[in-house]
Each structure stands twice: as C-alpha cells, then as structure tokens.
Amino acid sequence: MALLLQIMFKYTVIASALVAVSSAYNLITVCNNANFQGNCVTWTGNLNTCYGVGEYNDAISSANIFGGIVCRLYRHSGCRDAGPLITGPAYNLAEQNFNDVTSSFYCYFT
C-alpha cells in the first residue's frame, strides 16, 4: 500500500509540473483603432515565444497586456525590427510612431 501511495504521489507531482509548464497565458489584447475601439483580439499562448499577428498585420492601433507580462511589438514577422515595449495600456500607438505597422510580438514576465 505504501508503494502504491508513493507512486500515486510521484504521478501527481509530475502531472502538476507538466500542467504548469504548458499553461497558456492571456498575453496581449490589440485593436485596429486607437482607444481600444474597432475590432479587437486577445492572444493566448506561451511566454517567450514570437507570434505573428495574422489578419491584424499592419493594422494595430492600440494594445494592452495582462498583469506581470510585458510584450515587445515588432515591425516585421519573426520578431524583427523592434518597436515599443508594452507595459500597460497603449491607447494610441501613433504616439510611439508605431501605428498600423506591427507584424509580430514577443511577451515575457518582468
């Protein structure tokens, strides 16, 4: 019985660790108009990964991140040609000379 409990405990610890490693996060919300207007989408995924913005390519005007995460916007796919670092609500990316130019982003914990 003790061996069975030990095996069950190890399985639970391993399963919990795998869930923690593969957990997805709400990374960033972007909208195609300033002040979070127009069409918006929230990307959910893993940290420390470069993501393309798909149909929002060259069409993002505002962006916001979620607690403890920061995201860097990039002018080109593959996270090339770095733009602003989003650390909170960016109501109008034109103020950072980055309106309608985002093609990819990369998020991580601060």
From TrEMBL:
Signal peptide as annotated in the record: 1-24
Source organism superkingdom: Eukaryota
Originating species: Actinomortierella ambigua
Keyword Signal carried by entry: yes
Protein name (database record): Uncharacterized protein
UniProt keywords, alphabetically: Signal
Cross-referenced InterPro entries: G_crystallin-like
